Structures are given as structure tokens and as C-alpha cells.
């Protein structure tokens, strides 16, 4: 089904420790082009650290990250993004409060491309329109609801037409309705635009509904990796624990970091 046998993203032997705290011991993960891979794990498991390594925001201690066969290059620099081909949607949106929604979306185009000002305006407006924010370009983040801020962040992540989008807990902190809306949006946009995605989440239901593959990060390793059907069939006690908790979890507002029912189950 996939056009190329080479995964768009291939992570091998990734290691990251902070002092003697080994967060990622040895991570291997392949993300085929055009797929959504969800990385599940309890709070503090290292999901954000993993995603930041992929984005070039954290320099790993060892291992290789290949994007379309090329090293994503984290040679000791502060921020060496893997080019406009990868975008990162931060857990807290990371919108700039002093810029309007339009300016937030236009910023990566101004910073990473040599497009003309007219072209930047037209692309940024197009991205806002696509996310139903056409009338809100002049609003500042503080004037927008949480769900709308998330959509602005999504527009900003997609405006550079990335090949791969890295989502860190995309629905954390949203009320249930906004949460569903944002998640539907991600799935629909991915169908329309055809990007590949890695979604880090502690929400099992989201992971199973939206992903082609699910990986479970635990103790610095990928403990399980497979399609949602294998996840449902797995006899791994931690996987079945997650499955059992999913029903209860779905009734809760996601994103109360560290005190979610999921984290509670993991820690017992
Ligand atoms: N810059 C840092 N310096 C030291 N420790 C860090 C740093 N970033 C993350 N950690 C630690 O790494 C672990 C994993 O964090 P994180 O990836 O944020 O977990 P989560 O799975 O909840 O996203 C935590 O124990 C956290 O305290
Ligand atoms: Mg995190």
C-alpha cells in the first residue's frame, strides 16, 4: 500500500539521560510515510523528551534519527530543526501572546522561507481559513478559546506544508468537545494534506481511534509496537491494563498532567 519501503522517519538506538536519570534508554521506531503513529506512555515516561529529540530541540546522547534517509542533524546546536519538512505542535501551543493569530501563523514562513510578503500573507490566510479561523486573524491568543488557540497552533504547524508533524499531547487541557473537534481536525487534515504524524498522548482512546500504529513507551524502551488490532489482542499486562483503563479514561477530561486516571493505574 505504501509507495516506499523506506520509512519516512526511522529512529535507532536513541538514548537520552539527564545526569544519571536515563529517560530514553534505547528507542527504536519506524514511521512509514503517510501513517499516524501514536506513542503512549504514562506521565513522565519521556514522551515529550522523545518528541523533542525528533524535532531537534533536544540533542540525544546516542542513536540515529533519519528523516527520509537523511540524518536530522543535531550536531550540538541549540535548535537545528530538520528543515521545513518537520513541524512540531507543542503541548502548550507556544503561541506568542504579543502577536495576532495571523502573525503567529505567518511567522514560520517569514523565518524559514524566502517567500514574498504577498505569498506569505496568502498562505497564512489560507491556513487560517482551512482551520475555520478566517475571521479571527486579527485576534490575539488571549482573546481566543483554548480550542481556537489549539487550531491556531495547528495552522502554524501546517502552514509550511511539512511532511511530518509531531504532536505533543494535542488535546491535553481541552474540554471534551474541543478535544474531539481538534482530534477530528487532525485526522481530516491528515487525509486532505497527506502528512505523516507522530502523536504523543496518554489517551488510549485517541491513540487507537486515530492511528495506524501504536507504540508504548515505558522505562526508556518501546515496550509494545503494533497496529491497533494487535494492541487490542496483546497479552502484555501493561497493554491490557491500558485497555481496561481506556473506558474509564474516556469519561475524563484529558490533560490534567500527572493526576490522570491513566497515570494512576500505571503507578500502582
Ligand atoms: N531538560 C530536562 N532536564 C532534566 N530532566 C528533564 C528535562 N526534560 C525532561 N526531564 C525529565 O525527563 C522525564 C520525562 O519527561 P517528559 O518527556 O516530559 O515526560 P512525558 O512522558 O510526561 O512527556 C521526567 O522525569 C522529566 O523530569
Ligand atoms: Mg509530555
Could you please describe the fold and organization of this structure?
The protein is globular. Strands 6-7-8-3-9-10 form a six-stranded mixed β-sheet, with helices on both faces. Strands 2-1-4-5 form a four-stranded antiparallel β-sheet, with helices on one face. Strand 7, helix 5 and strand 8 form a beta-alpha-beta unit. It is built from nine helices and ten strands. It starts with 8 loop residues before the first strand and ends with a helix. The model is unreliable at about 75-85 and about 260-268 (pLDDT under 50). It has helices at about 45-55, 100-110, 115-130, 145-160, 175-195, 205-210, 230-235, 235-250, 260-265, and strands at about 10-20, 20-30, 35-40, 60-65, 70, 85-90, 165-170, 195-200, 215-220, 220-225. About 35% of the residues lie in helices and about 25% in strands. The site of adenosine-5'-diphosphate has 10 residues, from helix 1.
